[in-house]
From TrEMBL, chain A:
This is Uncharacterized protein. Residues 253-263 have a biased composition (Polar residues). Keywords: Membrane, Transmembrane, Transmembrane helix. The keyword Transmembrane helix applies. The chain crosses the membrane at residues 24-44, 70-90, 110-137, 143-166, 173-191, 221-244.
TrEMBL record, chain B:
GO terms for molecular function: ATP binding; ATP hydrolysis activity. Residues 1-201 form the ABC transporter domain. This is ABC transporter ATP-binding protein. SMART domains: AAA (SM00382). Keywords: ATP-binding, Nucleotide-binding. InterPro entries: AAA+_ATPase, ABC_transporter-like_ATP-bd, P-loop_NTPase. It comes from Streptomyces humidus. Gene3D superfamilies: P-loop containing nucleotide triphosphate hydrolases. It comes from the Bacteria. PROSITE patterns: ABC_TRANSPORTER_2 (PS50893). Pfam families: ABC_tran.
C-alpha cells in the first residue's frame, strides 16, 4: 500500500472510531429512525391522496401515512447524519489543525471524513428503508434507499461545513435542525400548500424528495432529480473543503518541515550541530 | 527559526508592535509577560497557527508546538493519539514517544480514552505530541500547567536534556519563577520583546 493510501486508511479508521463513540448519534440512529417512521405509520391517516410529482408532472396516488413516512425518513436521516458530521468536525477542529500542521496531509484527512460520511449515510439510509419496508411495500426500495442516501450525504457535507465555520456547538446544531425542518416541511404535499411551487425546487433535499416519492409510488427512475441532489452535495462538499483548508492552513511564511524521516529511539544526550545556515 | 518585524492587532488594540526573535541553537529561552501581554498570540504566530498582520516567520528544521489549550480528541485513547501523530510526523515507530511517556510518568494511561483523563495527564499527552518527533525547535506555551511538583521537576529535566542535545526550546509563561533554569529571558512588554539577561550558569 502506498504511503498516501496508508494515511487515508488510518485517518478513515480514526474518523469511524470517532463516529462510533458518539453515543448520542448512535442512539438517534437506533431509536429515532424507527420512532419517526412508526409514528408516521400509526398517527397519520391512511386514506389515499393524490399528489403531483413536480419533477415529472405525473399525478401519483399514495396513502397519507406512507407518504409521511418518506418525508419523516428523509427528515431523520438528514438530521442524524448532519448532526453526526457536524459534531465530529466541530469537536475535532483544533485537533485536525494540529494534525495537519504536524504534517498529516489535508487531502487524506478530508477524504477520510468523506469516506466516513459515505459509510454513515449508507448505513442510516439502508436502516430507514428496511424499517419502512416493514410497514408497506415501496415500488422501488433500492431507489428509495439511494434517494435517502443522497439527502444524507448532502446534509453530512453541510454538517462538515458548519462544523468548520460556526463558533458555538449550539449554533451548528440549531442550523442543521432548522434547515432540515424548513426544507422538508415545505415539500410535504399533504402539509404544505407550497409543495407544488417553483420555490421548492431550490430546497436542499428537493431532488431526494422527488426521487424518493417516485421510488415509493411509481416505477419512474428520476435520474435528473438524483443529479440535482448530487449537485447540492457537490456544492456543500466544496464549501466544506474550502472551509477545512482555510482552518487547517499554516500561516508560517517559510518552509515548515515539522514532519521528519524518523526520530532516534532514545532520549537525546548530545547532537552534533548541523551545517544548516540560519539567519 | 527567524522571526522579523511581527505586528498584530485585535481590532484597534495592537498586541505585537514589531517583535524580532532569533532562537539560538541549544538554548533554553523564556518569554514572560503579564496576562494579556500577547505571549500566546506571539507563540501562535511562531507556530503558524495565526497569520500576523505584518512580519515574517521562517522555520528551518523540524519544530514542535505545545499549545496552551490542550488540543486533543476525547474520542481517542492516548495510544491512538500517538499513533495518529506518528503517521503525521512520518515516524517509523513510537519508541521515542514511549520514552517521553516514561519520563513524564503516564505510560499506564496508554489505553485510556483521553476524555476520562485528569487535566495534568492530558497536558502530559499534549506535551508528548509536541516532543515525540525530536524537533530542532520546540515552542511551549505554559507547558506545565496542571502538573504536580514532581512532574514539574521532570519537565525541566527533560527540557535540560533537549538543550544538551542541541535543540532550541522556547517556553512562554506568565510566571517568572523559572528564570534560573533559562539561558535567556525575554519580557514581552508593550508589544515588543525586551532582552533579559542570560541567567543559567
Amino acid at each position: 500500500m502506498s504511503p498516501s493510501l496508508v494515511r487515508f486508511v488510518i485517518a478513515t479508521r480514526f474518523a469511524l472510531i470517532e463516529h462510533v463513540r458518539n453515543q448520542f448519534a448512535m442512539a438517534l440512529v437506533i431509536l429515532f429512525v424507527p420512532l419517526w417512521i412508526s409514528l408516521g405509520q400509526f398517527m397519520i391517516v391512511d386514506v389515499r391522496v393524490s399528489f403531483r410529482l413536480w419533477a415529472t408532472g405525473q399525478n401519483l396516488i399514495a396513502r397519507g401515512n406512507e407518504l409521511t413516512q418518506i418525508s419523516g425518513a428523509l427528515n431523520a436521516v438528514t438530521l442524524i447524519v448532519g448532526f453526526a458530521m457536524f459534531s465530529a468536525t466541530f469537536s475535532s477542529g483544533t485537533f485536525d489543525r494540529r494534525l495537519a500542521m504536524a504534517g498529516y496531509p489535508r487531502p487524506q484527512l478530508l477524504l477520510a471524513k468523506v469516506a466516513s460520511l459515505v459509510l454513515a449515510s449508507a448505513v442510516v439510509s439502508l436502516y430507514a428503508t428496511v424499517v419502512m419496508c416493514v410497514y408497506w411495500s415501496p415500488r422501488q426500495p433500492v431507489l428509495l434507499a439511494v434517494s435517502l442516501f443522497s439527502a444524507a450525504m448532502t446534509y453530512g457535507a453541510v454538517g462538515v461545513a458548519l462544523g468548520t465555520v460556526v463558533r458555538r456547538e449550539l449554533e451548528g446544531i440549531f442550523l442543521v435542525v432548522m434547515i432540515s425542518v424548513i426544507d422538508l416541511a415545505l415539500q410535504n404535499p399533504i402539509a404544505s400548500k407550497g409543495a407544488d411551487t417553483a420555490l421548492v425546487r431550490l430546497l436542499p433535499s428537493y431532488g431526494a424528495m422527488q426521487s424518493a416519492s417516485a421510488a415509493g409510488f411509481s416505477h419512474s427512475v428520476l435520474l435528473s432529480c438524483l443529479g440535482v441532489q448530487l449537485a447540492w452535495f457537490a456544492g456543500a462538499a466544496l464549501l466544506s473543503l474550502l472551509a477545512f483548508r482555510r482552518r487547517t492552513r499554516s500561516a508560517v511564511t517559510g518552509q515548515v518541515p515539522s514532519s521528519t524521516q524518523g526520530a532516534p529511539c532514545s532520549l537525546p544526550t548530545a547532537r552534533r550541530p548541523r551545517s544548516t545556515t540560519r539567519s | 527559526m527567524k522571526v522579523a518585524g511581527i505586528h498584530h492587532a485585535y481590532g484597534s488594540r495592537a498586541v505585537l508592535r514589531g517583535v524580532d526573535v532569533e532562537l539560538p541553537r541549544g538554548a533554553l529561552v523564556g518569554i514572560v509577560g503579564e496576562n494579556g501581554a500577547g505571549k500566546s498570540t506571539l507563540l501562535k504566530i511562531l507556530a503558524g497557527e495565526l497569520r500576523p498582520d505584518r512580519g515574517v516567520v521562517r522555520h528551518e528544521g523540524r519544530f514542535g508546538y505545545c499549545p496552551q489549550q490542550v488540543d486533543l480528541n476525547d474520542a481517542f485513547t492516548v495510544r491512538q493519539h500517538l499513533e495518529f501523530f506518528r503517521i503525521a510526523y512520518s515516524l517509523p515507530d513510537l519508541c521515542r514517544a514511549e520514552e517521553i511517556m516514561e519520563a513524564l510518568r503516564f505510560s499506564e494511561f496508554a489505553q485510556e480514552r483521553v476524555g476520562v483523563l485528569s487535566g495534568g495527564t492530558r497536558q502530559k499527552l499534549n506535551l508528548a505530541l509536541a516532543l515525540m518527533h525530536d524537533p530542532d525547535v520546540l515552542l511551549l506555551d505554559e507547558p506545565y500547567q496542571g502538573f504536580d511538583w514532581d512532574t514539574y521537576l521532570r519537565f525541566w529535566e527533560l527540557a535540560a536534556q533537549l538543550r544538551a542535545a542541541g535543540q532550541s526550546v522556547l517556553v512562554v509563561s506568565h510566571l517568572a519563577y523559572d528564570v534560573d533554569r533559562l539561558d535567556v529571558l525575554w519580557r514581552l512588554e508593550e508589544g515588543v520583546l525586551r532582552a533579559g539577561a542570560a541567567v543559567a550558569s
